[in-house]
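*** Query protein ***
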Amino acid sequence: MRAAELCLISTCLLMLQLLPVYGGSADPDDFRKMTAGVRKKCIAETKATLEMIEGTEYGEFPDDNRLKCYFKCALEKFNMMDKNGRINYNLLKKMIPDPYKEIGNDMVDSCNEIDATDKCEKAFNFMRCMFNVNPMVNPILD
């Protein structure tokens, strides 16, 4: 897979939070299909459960190392985290589609000071921060 495609896919993590809140018509299931290969690899690698991962879309972030390392795995496979644990915030911001630039940039900027020595912890804290800055509306409950 080309680097550009990996970068595009990486924005899916952000888009799952932006689209329902701002009336996007994209289906979250489309994003799940696009990221299925990475999801499958990272689940196998970390032993995180699908229920655990999907629960984060609704604000459930259990303090579980499997989930923490799942996020690290996904960010690394999407080239959004390097081997030293640095998250590439600038690249993530460049990949946000124009209609979502303002809120997306605000979310990333709000979460770019995550400090943790452990890469799993840092990835987890970043994803939790992104959710907390702009919690996703549960479309089933609306």
Q: What stands out?
A: Confidence is low (pLDDT under 50) at residues 1-10, 15-26, 137-142. The chain has one domain: 28-133.
